[in-house]
Design a protein that fits this description.
This protein is mainly alpha-helical. The chain has a domain at about 70-235. It is built from 11 helices and no strands. It has helices at about 5-15, 25-30, 35-60, 60-65, 75-100, 110-120, 125-150, 155-170, 175-195, 195-215, 220-235. Helix 7 crosses helix 9, helix 7 packs antiparallel against helix 10 (about 195-215) and helix 9 packs antiparallel against helix 10 (about 195-215). The longest helix is centred in the middle third of the chain and has 28 residues, at about 75-100.
Length: about 240
């Protein structure tokens, strides 16, 4: 694997762990009655932005390289982004149904809930969800991890490893299936189009849909919908 790829991965890891630097200042922030949580959200936003800039610099030669042979043109690239978005939405719904009715997982995603709390507190945090995270994650998990394994093995091995790692990194193991399904769909889009921009944009649009959907529904309404869903399950499946 090229050295620049290792530096990209290292950049991502350092960015994820950078919040540790705030720990020594926590007592001082409390002393001055500063909102530690809000500060941590802004820190994440800045660290993600810096990471994206560093990764773009590291991969500047890759971005100047002509598209791979047989890669899709602009028209088909747009088409596959649209197809990918609907596939991702359908995949998430199916994964959610499997979790609920097969695995008996009823708890909402803590990762999603935490992200939405951050977006409500600091609206600019949405840039991480819709832009910065999709760019970094697709470059690392699809272009680098999946791509390098795919070169040496086959699609199934590469997608299994990369999708599992993609899900695990989000730390939401209860809903690992949903992240795994997303990883499979994004990898398939990358292979089909041979353009990393396709899963990046699809990932971003998917996250944008989730953010808009979550913001448009109050917590009380979400709880009511959950109860209605459980009641429907009792009627259809007998509890």
């Amino acid at each position: 694997m090229p050295a620049r790829y290792w530096f990209v991965i290292l950049t991502y890891i350092v960015m994820q762990l950078s919040s540790i630097l705030l720990l020594p200042f926590v007592p001082w922030m409390r002393e001055h009655s500063l909102d530690i949580v809000t500060i941590s959200y802004w820190w994440s936003l800045i660290s993600f932005l810096v990471a994206v800039i560093i990764v773009c610099i590291l991969l500047r030669n890759d971005m100047r390289t002509p598209a791979m042979r047989n890669s899709t043109g602009i028209g088909m690239t747009i088409v596959w982004i649209i197809i990918g978005l609907f596939a991702a939405l359908a995949g998430q719904v199916i994964a959610s149904l499997i979790e609920m009715y097969v695995l008996n997982i009823r708890q909402a995603s803590e990762n999603t809930s935490g992200i939405m709390d951050a977006v409500r507190a600091v609206p600019a945090f949405a840039l991480i969800v819709v832009v910065f995270a999709p760019v970094l994650e697709e470059i690392i998990f699809r272009k680098i991890l999946f791509g390098e394994i795919y070169k040496r093995t086959n699609f199934f091995v590469a997608v299994l490893i990369s999708a599992l790692v993609f899900g695990a990194v989000h730390g939401d193991f209860l809903h690992l299936l949903q992240y795994f399904v997303m990883g499979v769909i994004f990898a398939a889009l990358y292979v089909k189009t041979k353009r990393i921009i396709v899963p990046i944009i699809t990932h971003g649009l998917m996250n944008l849909y989730v953010v808009i959907n979550q913001l448009s529904i109050s917590p009380e309404k979400l709880e009511e919908m959950q109860k209605q869903l459980e009641n429907m399950q009792m009627i259809i499946f007998g509890g």
